[in-house]
């Protein structure tokens, strides 16, 4: 299962290895005209952004100022997404071991711990 227009890497790899694969496109990402916020926030409150796809990274740079986004720590889920963020000017990038909630939380805890360590010295 994947989103409409999603990458073909897994499908192609499995077919190349002789698998019989049924592919279903079950969701579609829809770009909003502007972000929908679930609560009020201020840029000074944000220290880290967690992005689980290249589309999320691209959307952030379309909606918000690059000069602000590039000052933040970013947690991404793969080298591919790290490369996308890097090409947009992000320099503080951590790659989570995978996209699970547990892995992302552990990576965020590491980023917070590292930031506390640097601020103490």
Give keywords.
5 helices; 121 residues; Rossmann fold; single chain; alpha/beta
Span between termini: 48 Å
Helix and strand run:
EHEEHHEHEH
Strand content: 5-15%
CATH architecture of the largest domain: 3-Layer(aba) Sandwich
Q: Structural class, judged by helices and strands?
A: alpha/beta
H/I helix tally: 5
**Mean pLDDT value:** 89
**Count of domains:** 2
pLDDT < 50 stretches: none
In the CATH hierarchy, what is the class of the largest domain?
Alpha Beta
Q: State the major sheet.
A: 3 strands, parallel
Radius of gyration: 17 Å
What is the helix fraction of residues, given as a range? 40-55%
Shape: globular
Strand segment count = 5
Protein name: Uroporphyrinogen III synthase HEM4
InterPro entries: 4pyrrol_syn_uPrphyn_synt_sf, 4pyrrol_synth_uPrphyn_synth
GO molecular function: uroporphyrinogen-III synthase activity
Domain Tetrapyrrole biosynthesis uroporphyrinogen III synthase: 3-106
């Amino acid at each position: 299962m994947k989103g409409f227009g999603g990458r073909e890497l897994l499908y192609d790899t499995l077919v190349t290895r002789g698998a019989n694969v049924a592919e279903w496109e079950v969701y579609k990402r829809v770009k909003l005209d502007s972000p929908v916020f679930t609560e009020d926030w201020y840029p000074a409150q944000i220290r880290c952004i967690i992005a689980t796809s290249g589309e999320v990274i691209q959307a952030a740079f379309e909606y918000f100022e690059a000069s602000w986004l590039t000052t933040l720590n970013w947690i991404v889920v793969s080298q591919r997404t790290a490369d996308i963020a890097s090409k947009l000017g992000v320099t503080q990038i951590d790659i989570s071991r995978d996209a699970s909630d547990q892995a992302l939380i552990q990576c965020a805890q590491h980023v917070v711990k590292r930031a506390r360590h640097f601020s103490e010295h």
